[in-house]
Design brief:
It is a single chain. This protein is α+β, with helices and mostly antiparallel strands and 160 residues long. The chain has a domain at 4-78 and 118-151. The chain has helices at 4-10, 89-92, 118-137; strands spanning 15-16, 27-34, 37-48, 51-59, 69-76, 81-85, 99-105, 108-114. Strands 1, 2, 3, 4, 5, 6, 7 and 8 form an eight-stranded antiparallel β-sheet that branches. The longest helix is centred in the last third of the chain and has 20 residues, at 118-137. It is globular and about 40 Å long.
């Protein structure tokens, strides 16, 4: 089931949680590994014009509609953003192991465990492509992310 529909329902007109590659990649379910607390999350790459941001949601069950998700955080993909795969030697030795990534923006850091598979690989490559697009434009045209202001009240930890 494509859970990106639930994310799309939370977005304003002109904002899309859709990545068109050979296979449409919209959102990935993952586990947040913050302070040794594991929490299931839904993460979507959202685009508005030429700007992208990661929208991170909590969810009660399989996210089918906007009522099933709660916006936790938004991480703008700007020059100050990075996503890096991190793994222990034990994880590298296991074929089919989940993918662990560390996402950073300014002083904020988040570690996520994404499911093994091509869906995760395509999602991460689209996130990296969005970041590369920003780097090509910086500093000439730095993203402003004005469209994210309306979400500040809805999100728990969005103080960027």
């Amino acid at each position: 089931m494509d859970q990106s529909v639930a994310i799309q329902e939370t977005l304003a007109k002109g904002e899309n949680c859709t990545i068109m590659s050979p296979v449409p990649i919209h959102a990935v379910e993952c586990v947040s590994l913050l302070n040794d607390v594991r929490e299931s999350k839904l993460i979507g790459l959202v685009q508005q014009n030429n700007e992208h941001a990661l929208f991170i949601y909590s969810h009660r069950r399989m996210a089918i509609t906007a009522d099933d998700v709660t916006l936790d955080d938004i991480i703008p993909i700007s020059y100050d953003f990075s996503v890096v795969e991190v793994s222990s030697p034990d994880e590298l030795a296991v074929v089919g192991a989940d993918t662990r990534v560390r996402v950073t923006f300014l002083k904020e850091e988040l570690e996520l465990k994404l499911p093994f598979g091509s869906h995760t690989r395509l999602f991460l490559s689209e996130v990296n492509r969005a970041w590369s697009d920003v780097c090509e434009q910086y500093p000439k045209e730095e993203p402003k992310f004005d469209w994210l202001a309306k979400y500040r009240k809805m999100s728990k930890g969005l103080d960027h």
